[in-house]
Design goal:
The complex is a heterodimer of chains A (about 270) and B (about 270). Chain A is an all-alpha fold and about 270 residues long. Chain A has a domain of about 180 residues: Orthogonal Bundle (MetI-like fold). Chain A is about 80% helix and about 0% strand. Chain A starts with a helix and ends with a helix. With about 270 residues, chain B is an all-alpha fold. Chain B has 12 helices and 2 strands; from the N terminus they run αββααααααααααα. In chain B, a hairpin with a 2-residue loop joins strand 1 and strand 2. In chain B, helix 1 crosses helix 12, helix 7 packs across helix 9 and helix 8 packs antiparallel against helix 9. Chain B is globular and about 80 Å long. The two termini of chain B are about 30 Å apart. Classes of the chains: A mainly alpha (about 270), B mainly alpha (about 270).
Chain lengths: ~270, ~270
């Protein structure tokens, strides 16, 4: 069974490649010395310093606030849009869907600079300078298409007759939408929400071009710091974020397994 | 009963934040501000064909192509293994490819800086083996490595998702008819997985050609790719017209290559990895 061993070793090597930098970050967040390369003893001081550094905390707050707000707003607008687009006639639908693909296809940097142009251009009229709010608007903009693309397949699978039956039984269209359509497309909505949240956290390029006046998120903070030199506080922060995400995923995974087995039992 | 109006807020939003900005980009690309006011010009587009900028453009495309090929060569076997009988029950393995993305890619790239840099892990290993130290950071190799590291999941996941949906009975039929594994791979698995390969290639090539962070951090401050050029024009030089022109050309290149790829991929659904 040489093939089996080769497969296993190959997979291990790939995971080693993917996780090596992350393991580095985690290990060196407990390192006494400032430099990432020399191990000089275990310490928790970087964690302590992290929670004293207002600049980092501010950046963390911005990252999370924008991720949550943009994901929620994009999910609401995107889900409504998907329902609307689904009902459109063919040609109109094709035009709108192509428009939806545009920000997905367009390079990040082009989306970023074109939004920057918009915000700078409209500043005299709106009085809104580059900062938290413009960054939020930009994140909502690039998140909406992903929500639509997650919800659309679920709408296609939907059985129209259930909705029509609800109307025949006296439900108002809005009530039928809430009780019949929304629950059925819920998995798509949740996927879209999580996707939007992830993309917002991971984004650097668009944030970089649409923020200003000292408002930064974690990515921008790291970028400005990488020039000044290595800072173990970022390792500590990344470790906390990584552990949180991992814990969340494990909990979700466990709950899904439980639900699955429940479903299986009830089927039996 | 039509609910098309549900889409109107979105349409308004997209008009303001996608269509108008792109027109602004076009406006800056084709105009110049002189004393007499704003006039139409092609000078910014022409400027890109000057050798210094053309070299940057060609180098960006070349590096992105190398990165895409490397990702495909490494990633296809990974997808094949993950979708194979031994591992296909294990959904967590595929998830393991997504988890690194939850750490901001800038932080991960910055970790590579310290892995590759002086006194980094690679240096220590070389030292331990009594080999001469190699300069890795601030070279082409480091930039390609950083790109492959960041974009490999985008190659693996679409191929994996196509492979898992593939009708396994075709493979069994081929095997029953006496085909060996190589033949099955060549005649059945690879042709059927092409849609995944194509969306993988686009999802790797596009971000690779436009990155400016990986080249900045791993290639050093002097290292210029097309993305760095755009950033420089907007942030440092302040020449928005030229910056817009480069962005415009970049968009056209991407759209053309997307068009070519789409031709080969009739079953394009988009967002296949999710």
């Amino acid at each position: 069974m040489v093939g089996r061993i080769v497969k296993r070793v190959y997979l291990y090597l790939i995971f080693l490649f993917l996780y090596a930098p992350i393991v580095m970050l985690v290990v060196y967040s407990f390192n006494e010395s400032r430099s990432m390369g020399r191990w000089s003893g275990f310490t928790l001081k970087w964690y302590a310093e992290l929670f004293k550094d207002t600049e980092v905390l501010r950046a963390l707050y911005n990252t999370l606030a924008i991720a949550v707000l943009s994901a929620v707003i994009a999910t609401i607008i995107g889900t409504a849009a998907a329902i609307g687009i689904h009902e459109m006639k063919r040609i109109k639908k094709a035009i709108v869907m192509n428009l939806t693909y545009l920000p997905v296809i367009n390079p990040d940097i082009v989306t970023g600079v074109s939004l920057m142009l918009l915000f700078v251009f409209t500043k005299p009229f709106t009085g809104m300078g580059l900062g938290f709010f413009t960054m939020l608007l930009a994140h909502i903009t690039f998140n909406i298409p992903y929500v639509i693309l997650s919800v659309m397949p679920k709408l296609k699978q939907l059985d129209r007759h259930v909705y029509e039956a609800a109307l025949d039984l006296g439900a108002t269209p809005f009530y039928a939408l809430r009780k019949v359509v929304i629950p059925q497309i819920m998995p798509g909505i949740v996927t879209g929400l999580l996707l939007a949240f992830t993309l917002s956290i991971d984004d650097f390029v668009i944030s970089f071009f649409t923020t200003g006046s000292g408002v930064s998120n974690i990515a921008i903070y790291v970028y400005s710091m990488a020039r000044r030199g290595v800072n173990p506080k970022i390792n500590a922060l990344s470790t906390i974020m990584f552990v949180t995400v991992l814990a969340l995923l494990l909990i979700v995974n466990k709950r899904m397994n439980k639900d699955n087995s429940k479903v299986k039992e009830s089927v039996r | 009963m039509r609910r098309t109006w549900y889409a109107y807020p979105y349409l308004v939003w997209m008009a303001i934040f996608i269509v108008v900005p792109l027109f602004l980009l076009l406006f800056y690309t084709f105009t110049a501000t002189t004393e007499e006011g704003i006039r139409f010009t092609l000078q910014h587009i022409k400027r890109i064909w000057e050798p210094i900028y053309l070299i940057v453009l060609l180098r960006s495309i070349l590096l992105a192509l190398i990165c895409t090929v490397v990702c495909l060569l490494i990633g296809y076997p990974v997808a094949l293994i993950l979708a194979s009988k031994e591992y296909s029950q294990n959904k967590v393995l595929a998830l393991l490819f997504v988890i690194p993305m939850w750490i901001n890619f800038l932080v991960r790239t910055y970790a590579w800086m310290s892995l590759l840099g002086k006194n980094g892990l690679i240096d220590m290993v070389m030292d331990f083996l009594h080999l001469p130290p190699v300069q890795l950071l601030y070279t082409d190799h480091a930039v390609v490595l950083g790109m492959v590291y960041n974009f490999l999941p985008f190659m693996v996941l679409p191929i994996y998702s196509v492979l898992t949906k593939m009708d396994k009975s075709i493979i069994e039929a081929a095997e029953d008819l006496g085909a060996d594994y190589i033949t099955v791979l060549k005649r059945i698995i690879i042709p059927l997985s092409l849609p995944g390969v194509i969306s993988g290639i686009t999802m790797v090539f596009m971000p690779a050609v436009t990155t400016f962070i990986i080249s900045r951090l791993l290639g050093g401050g002097q290292y210029i790719l097309i993305g760095n050029l755009i950033e420089q024009q907007f942030i440092v030089v302040g020449d928005w017209n030229f910056g817009s022109a480069i962005s415009f050309v970049l968009t056209v290149i991407i759209l053309i290559s997307m068009g070519i790829m789409r031709k080969y991929d009739r079953e394009y659904e988009g967002g296949a990895i999710w």
